[in-house]
Amino acid sequence: MTPQQLDLNERQSFLTWRRGLAELEDNEKLVLTPFEKNLDIWRQLWRVLERCDLVVMVVDARNPLFYRCPDLEAYVKELDPNRKTMLLLNKSDLLTRDARHKWATYLKEQGIPYMFWSAKVATAILEGKEEVASIVDEEEADDEDAVVLERDELLGRVQKMAEDIAETRRIASQASLSKHLETHGSTLAKGKSETDPGVGSSSASGRVMVGFVGYPNVGKSSTINALVGEKKTGVTSTPGKTKHFQTLIISDKLMLCDCPGLVFPSFTTSRSEMVAAGVLPVDRMTDHRGPIQVVANKVPRAVLESTYGFTLPAPKPYENPNRPPTAAELLRAYAMSRGQVASSGLPDETRASRTILKDYLSGKLLFCYAPPNEEQAGFSQRIGTSSEVGDEDDDEDEDEFDPEEGSDDEDGESGSEGEDGEPSGSGSMGGKLLGVGDSNMADVFGDLDTLTIGADLRASKTKNQKEKAPHKVHRKTARKKDRSWRVTNDGSDGMPSSGVVQKAVSHGAAKVRLSV
Q1: How far, in Å, CA of 228 to CA of 249, rounded?
Q2: Could you tell me which InterPro entries the record lists for this protein (predicted)?
Q3: What residues does 347 pair with on adjacent strands?
Q4: Helix (H) / strand (E) containing 394
Q5: pTM here?
Q6: pLDDT of residue 505
Q7: Which of 136, 145, 360, 398 is the least crowded, having the fewest Cβ atoms under 10 Å away?
């Protein structure tokens, strides 16, 4: 097949596939999430799958099932029945050991090969950052299935799996060759064996190839850099950094291949969920309240308030007291606490939404999904930690002051005499005369101390106020306004009266004329 024929066939197959998805969306009334529509990116995936012996699907350990694509696994089996796909749960340092154990149990029951891994921890070990890499030292070998693997362990396991696959393919190729010999004779088989050794290109060169595929922004390039030991591929928090696949030689027996991230079509998720998951770029989103509402529904109210240091508005009396905060409440509270105001004078919700989403993607606002057969309540690490911290704080507050203990101490000292020689027990008698019991005396004096402290604070606040300038203290007295126009009870109709002066009529001129 010529390259032109291959290009034409790929274009026709791709258009047929997209046309089928559009018809399914229209006929079944389903909403299809945004997916990769660039044929060149899909070609990069096809070339990687054709070359590799082992396909490693990198997923985010906080929600592995969202990033797993069963259709991709089926396509790998269609290419070669002997080829295998393995899940690599990146960012596993964000999960507790118990959470990893539950996911390991679930994946085992489903028959899915998996490995726990953290590119961030592996990079920290290479750079010598002990405070970040300490999580690996804390892991114990009592449960090997839930341990976060180190760099050498991961390389050894993937190399062994790829070599086993290559050996299986070689045996299958020899079996098919022997069958061909029996059918067509030795002449045809000899020519075939000289032109086609029956083993993949990686085996012909003596190396096995392991390809890393998956959604954007799950850590494929970071994993490659950590395994190689130096920065070979570009890494950024924006999805879609890698545009072309590249191969990297690790040793004489192992080669790695980094594939660009692809967004696969799905009918089960929404665009807001894809933005909150980091699949779509955060800086290019147009609707910011939708993804923030996804975060608000997952992260508890107490975790949001303790992380950012603000107080969210409480639900109305007629609302559910346990409802999650709305996107508008969360964005306005964050923007006002950080002083982020737009040009219109309102809280800058767009800027606040980007910051909150990036904190959610980086793990500052931690939320981890539980396996389908487990309960979600209390599964995330930070949720359990925040509740425990709150309980400890409550215990400490209770131990700070106990009225009964204070009264016992006073009663214990009541037997001793004071400086004046009078028994100190008279204080309790005075309390009885006032009608106050011994157990309530501490409360009474505590209230008095509180009033005294409040008065001192007000006095200190008054002293700290700056004195006003003399020209501001002595102001002109306000001019008294003339309000005589108002209606009074003098019997008038309230209409303004005009000042009319009636002059006396002069008849002098008329008398002069008559006399003439």
Answers
A1: 8
A2: G_CP_dom, GNL1-like, GTP-bd, GTP-bd_ortho_bundle_sf, P-loop_NTPase
A3: 341
A4: helix 381-400
A5: 0.66
A6: 62
A7: 398
